[in-house]
Amino acid sequence: MKNKKIINCLLKKDIRPNIKGFRCLYYAIDLVVKNDGILLPRTKVIYPTVAEICKDTSSKVERAIRHAIETSSKSSLTNGEFIALCALEVME
After folding, report:
1. Taking the model in full, what pTM does it have?
2. Which domain range does residue 86 map to?
């Protein structure tokens, strides 16, 4: 159920599913939701964990997420703000 909520949240915010950042955001939001909405330190926990799942580096994950957000309707948000916003929507 939460998987569909995360996907719907990303699609509502105009994140295109064909870009790498979509998948990275999905795993980042899922990680925050699984930790009861606690926004973990991005550079120490979220990016390395997502990078391991996606078999990539932390810096590439961070950049993919930033690119996805920049191309969306919420381009003024930072990575952390966007992840927190989506996590809150999913947990409602």
Report:
1. 0.91
2. 2-91
d(CA 37, CA 61): 20
- Closest to 80 in 3D by CA, of 67, 62, 64, 53: 62
Q: State the CATH number of the domain containing residue 18.
A: 1.10.10.10
Q: How far is residue 9's CA from residue 89's CA, in Å, rounded to a whole number? A: 7
The torsion region of residue 55 among left (phi > 0), alpha (psi -120 to 50) and beta comes to left
Q: Using 50, 70 and 90 to split pLDDT, how confident is the model at 85? A: very high
* pLDDT-above-70 percentage for the chain: 98
Question: What is the domain count for the chain?
Answer: 1
